[in-house]
Amino acid sequence: IVRETISGSAAIDFAPKAGYTEVTLRHEAIDFAGKYEVRYTTDGSEPTAASALYDPAKPLELEEACTVKAILKEEGKDRFGAAVSQAITVRSGDLKITATRAPGKTTVRIEVADTKHFNADGAVIYYSKNDGATFDEYQVAGGKNYVEFDTDKAITVVAYLEEQGKTIGKDVDEDITVDPVTTEPTDPEDPKDPTEPTDPTDPSDPDDDTDAIGGIAADGAAKVTVEGDSIVAPEGSMVFDLTGRRVRPEGLRAGIYIVRLADGTAVKVAVR
Questions:
Q1: Based on the number of CB atoms within 10 Å of its own CB, is 15 exposed (0-12), middle (13-18) or buried (19 or more)?
Q2: Cα–Cα distance, 16 to 64 (Å, whole number)
């Protein structure tokens, strides 16, 4: 009497990942040291000796829900062991949220974190701008796997992905801040102030075609001098800043001043 020897059974291990499920097929005995082969199917059909051969070095990466069935044959045994079966679900991929800040506005982008296992057909990004109270949806189309919007106030964004044939993905959330708009006061007496109108008689202007001597316009140059932070001019002269305000000729800030002489002529002076 010849008795056939029957192998042990396979075991199916699985681990849900972002956008796919990793499946490992092995001997049911964790400490089994012998050689064996595993044949499997993912379409629900019964596996046979002609079914796909599992490579232990390459776990299966399944991107759709299915039923995995497997049989195992040990080296030296006559027959495969009993078939085993496992229903597999697949979770939708993960999203990532990035924020690009500018004064008064932040641009928020919500996109698929890893497109390797991403199925764009029918995929929807659900996102909330109010910490999950309500959700908007974006239908992925045209290869654009992200949604983008601007906000002028601090918000909490919550989002998740849903792909066809997969369960919904994990929630991702991010607190979004907005940088304030800052304005610097301008100084009308500062010759470097970019908001100050160009004056064709200003000796500091690169386009000025007026001759200058020591920062004083040529017209009346012999009558007016600059000594440190003071302007020395003939008696009866008056000193004005560029706003037209009369100022004392001593203790002046760096800037451009107009000296009106007693004879009615005007001289532009630069105090450095």
A1: exposed
A2: 11
Alpha-carbon distance of 235 to 27, in angstroms, equals 110
Residue 73's DSSP bridge partners are 37
The label of the residue with tokens 């390797």 reads 116
Output the six-digit token pair for 54.
Answer: 């599992």
CB-count burial class (<10 Å; 0-12, 13-18, 19+) for 203: buried
Q: Is 61 exposed, middle or buried (0-12, 13-18, 19+ CB in 10 A)?
A: middle
Residues 78-116 have pLDDT tens digits of 999 999 999 999 999 999 999 999 999 999 999 999 999
Which helix (H) or strand (E) element contains residue 74? Answer: strand 66-74
- Dihedral over alpha carbons 191, 196, 200, 204 (to 10 degrees): 20
Query: Is the pTM for the entire model greater than 0.85?
Result: no
- C-alpha gyration radius of the chain: 40
Summarize pLDDT for 132-156 with one digit per residue, the tens: 999 999 999 888 899 999 999 999 9
